[in-house]
Specification:
The structure is a homodimer of 169-residue chains.
Chain A: H1 2-7, H2 10-33, H3 39-42, H4 53-72, H5 86-100, E1 115-118, E2 126-129, H6 130-155, H7 162-166
Antiparallel strand pairs in A: 1-2
Helix pairs in contact in A: 2-4, 2-5, 2-6, 4-5, 4-6
Organism (chains A, B): Rhodanobacter ginsengisoli
InterPro entries (chains A, B): DinB/YfiT-like (IPR034660), DUF1993 (IPR018531)
Pfam families (chains A, B): DUF1993
């Protein structure tokens, strides 16, 4: 069970965030080549009341860090989420990969049964065991934001394919 | 390990496909209310060389069935993928839920170590153990298509939110 909880989180986050970093590099190169103001991509939205691309990347990273930390019983780090440029977003992914890379299977011992409380003390407070938290909440949320970042760039003409999204596996 | 492989697949597919079916129902109601030709939604694309919405739903269902069957060592069923209308797409989800609902934890015994071969006999042939296949390939693919279907409908003004995407959990 320990192995499964670790295998279902850290390596998955690493794979997908690695893919996302490569996608952002392609998007930046695309903008340079076509003389596109990078904010046309970093601030792109699929609908006016949806988050822009840069925020999708930040939230994906936030879930990767938060889910990993909670499962490991570690403190969830607070990041400022001030990133605007592609370089800053890639740096954010690097920092996030560095943070989650600090966890190994040993820290995930007992993670499946660990009680996780999200939004504690608020009306939206929810309690999960670790396995449910990861599979029913953390992974769906993480994949949502990675895919939406991809969809936003693809929608705006960046030449990427599902292979880029899938990362190295 | 058995429990983990089952828990990381069938219930996740059920949760997300349930959410997707509810999203499709909202999209259909939205089209009726606004007098929108439903094909404006079912055939919507985020970019000309991406698959349309209806195909995203079909592929999501295809991964749910294929991944479940392969992990259980069962035959992957062939579906015709002829669905065009919202009703047909919801029916497809129902059939898919029926199919994957036929698997229990017992069928997933040994699934983590089972050898899975995708696109056998082609230049794209790949071999995985079951755990890697599920976590590095099956889940990322499945979430990609569910999220893209959601993004397409959201982009086209259907009033849905991430809560709809998340389904019941």
């Amino acid at each position: 069970m320990t192995d499964a909880m670790y295998a279902s989180s850290i390596p998955v986050f690493k794979q997908m965030l690695g893919g996302l970093a490569a996608i952002l590099a392609k998007a930046e190169a695309h903008a340079a080549e076509k003389n596109i103001d990078v904010t046309a991509l970093t601030q792109a939205r699929l609908f006016p009341d949806m988050f822009p691309m840069r925020r999708q990347v930040q939230i994906a990273c936030d879930f990767a860090r938060g889910v990993s930390a909670r499962l490991a019983g570690a403190e969830v780090p607070k990041y400022e989420d001030q990133e605007q440029s592609f370089a800053e977003l890639r740096e954010l992914i690097e920092r996030t990969l560095g943070f989650i890379g600090g966890f190994g299977p040993a820290q995930f011992e007992g993670a499946a049964g660990r009680e996780i409380v999200t939004r504690p003390g608020t009306p939206k407070e929810r309690r999960f065991d670790g396995q449910t938290y990861l599979l029913s909440y953390g992974l769906p949320q993480f994949f949502f934001h990675v895919t939406t970042a991809y969809a936003l760039l693809r929608h705006n003409g960046v030449e990427i394919g599902k292979r880029d999204y899938m990362g190295q596996y």
